[in-house]
Design a protein that fits this description.
It is a single chain. About 20% of the residues lie in helices and about 20% in strands. By secondary structure, it is α+β, with helices and mostly antiparallel strands. Helix 18 packs antiparallel against helix 19 (about 935-945).
Length: about 950
Amino acid sequence: MKYIKLLTIIATCLLLTSIFSVIPVFSMQPPIDTTTYYIGTIGQPARLDPGRAYDTASGEIIQNVYQPLIWFSDKHPLTLVSGEDHNLTALEHSDLTTSGFGPVIATALPTITDSGYGVGKYWNFTINPNARFQTWIGPSGSVQGRKNVTTDDVVYSFQIQMVFDSPYAPVWMWETVAFNFMSFDAGYSFPDDEAIVGKMISEWCYKDPDHLNTNVIFNFTYPLPTAAMYQIFAQTWGSIVNKDFFVAHGCWDGSFASGWSKWRQTGGTGNRSPIDRYISYSLYTDSTPGVGKDVPDMCGTGPYKYTYGAWDTINKQWRLDADVGGYWKDPTFANAGEKNGNYIHTIIEKGYDTWPTRKMLLLNGEVDTAVVPRANMYDLLVENDKYKPLPGLTLVTNISGLTNEEIFYCFNVSTDSAYQSYVGYPNHVVSIGADATFFNDVHIRRAFAWALDYTQIIAQAWFGEAIQQASWWVDGLVPASSKNTAITMRNVDLDMIKSELAQAALIDGHNISTEGFETTMIYNTGNDQRMIELNSIAAAFATIGSQYRCNVMGLDWPVFLDNMNAMNMPIFCLGWLADYADPSNWASPYQSSAGSFLYTQGPPFPDNQTAVDAAINAAAADTDPVHRDAMYKDLQYQYWLDVPSVPVVQPLGRRFARDWLQGWYYNDLYPGVYPYDLWKAVVASYAPVDLDVSDSITNVTSYDYVYVSNGKMNQYKGGGQAASMTFSVFIKRKDNNHDVLDLYAEVGLVRTNLTSLQTGAHYPSFQGPTWANPGGPSWYRDYRTGSEVDFFIPTQSPMYPTSQFVLLGPGANATAMLTWYEDGVTSALPANATWAIGTLVAIGQAYVANDTDLTNNAKGIDPGVYNCTALTLTDEVPHGSSTYDRYIAMIGDIDGDGCVKILDAIDLSSAFGKNFGQAGYLKEADTDSNGTVNVLDAINLSGNFGKKVGP
């Protein structure tokens, strides 16, 4: 099972739309970048080692870089229509039976034979001789070339997981089918038993003695049904890794010689390896050329490759690039997506904690998909229609995935936890840590289970699209006959809460029922459904009495996982995505003391844990289907009694995405997107975007041009096609007792990803109003981000006499059509540009409304005379910020200090003769905006020499 940061298939709705507020100048799209897949998410990967990663955020990136022996072959791409809903049917799910798989690193599905020991089986795989790894950087800094996958790599990929034997990793699945236990810690001690365990591991997965260079054998003493085994092999923990790459990074050396157990999971390294982060025995150092000390790294055989540093944990972003020319199955990527060259060359996934931010990015088209909290889905729907997405979006509903939501208790909270629980509120009389009991009291656990208002949660958090759970069972597991349908469904019951609290044991002599408690319940930031679930519990206890205090807190995903593994969180929420569609995959993690969930909650465990562990192992290995059904029904009922965790819902999913993203299909077991099968189509046309901008201006005194931007930069959602838009400007003077002599609006475009901008031949214009004459690139402002230069090109600019502008007066409206010209001919908007529109209000020359002294601050502007609350003292604030641009426009004032003086003349002289785009060119010195600093500019400067802004 995989921890899911949001129910990846269901509640992980992908989002988009435009919001006219703060739009970054350096936006990604539009126009549509058909080569890049932009994802807005709520969390980040936790680790990149396929044998350690056990969450969907990590699994998603691993799935695109690494490949398993066999993988899912049944795919049903949906035809999705903009503005329409697609109701997913059962037949459109990928087939998870044995017929739904095909070979990848293997040449064929495995040959399965009896081992001669009970129900044991030998699984024999022939390794594909064409499969090869990507390049990587070695400890010396040298680039390591591609190499073909060997049987040594395959054996190492699986043995290393058992060597590490982490309780927080998916290795339990291999150990269960090999040895019928979930961890060597269950019966072996180290280093005393390392020789025994080493022999067990080496005889479980090994090279075929008769075909050492081509075949690998797995010895499964207790195999699951074949379909379930296929599903296990196809997941990220079945990834084939490069042995040389792992060893060079400081991982297990591949030997079972005496002392090998030092590589087992130990304190200090947690569940991470040198592939995930620097560890003391890593072979990389600060002086390693090109990389420095070891950092998260990957080297797989898949279609996408990871580059050192491509995972930016500070900005919560990771990036993968297509291994074009090197991917062994498809070097040209010709088979990716719907052809026409529109394959996904780059994947960029970035975490944004808040919904408004993700919504803005999606609706603006800056991301192609994004996480949409169920509570906010109506933001993406046509009003009063639950199943009709906004234009430009596609929607898939009724996604019944093998996922669920549960709330977990920690039975042994760390004594140094920042989220400690206490008996007594508000006076803490007892700190409930490792030396005291709280959630290992079944009555307290049951009290919390009866505090959930399922009716409200399903209605409000999931809008009726979820199935209440009575146990860990989720619909869709096979066989359905194993489900216990007789279990009572809990719902909020205040009397039951009081009754269970009254039966709870005393804690250091204190009665929690009368004295109360304080505890902290934690969810991963951005997951509103989980926040609602925990608030439901908090509300129930608050209703009973003020002595019960339940705090609700959100943590970022990697921080959340680290705190869970450190046993710091008294109560926390997680979701699961099935590892495989068999009840054994759900009973073990939730109920076994070695299970992925329960292990992180204790010890201590429920009183009857020994018997439960034995029943789980017996059920998994039972070959009698009727008896197996009965055993799993009993386990579900025991789970309901013991309440080691609280089942919440199995959600029915929704998926929102931009309509240009195509090729998507649904697989219950994918941890995230697989962009190799997707493509982005250029949509033929877009609906005009209505950009309404308004601002108010109070009395202003100006002696030259004073500009006050209204601070709104609105991104145009078109691009890539000959495009049009509607642009409306309404500017109203606040003080209507005075006439404004000249009130102008500047409209312009931002073109990004350029290193230069040609003049004359390439320009935008607005066609329609009387004032809409092609302005050309008369003036620009550039913003630099590293090597990238972004240009803001006003089509109207009262700053320069050669530019066109519109006299608006106290108020005016204008509608225009945007057109891009190439050499005077109407053309499609360039695909490598991002377009945005801003407005700039200008108070004309010589307008004096009062006697306000404009020289009271550094730039000669008194912010009090404007109806603007965020004026700054900077010359320019990029459009799209929450503040306002402001600057003085006076011909010749090159350094912008409000006065034309000798220093300005010196600046003009240094730029003299320079053309637009050349080094040394100064836009402020090009006073007539003709693209060249020449004698005319010097004449203009001399005409204002000695003048200053203000009296």
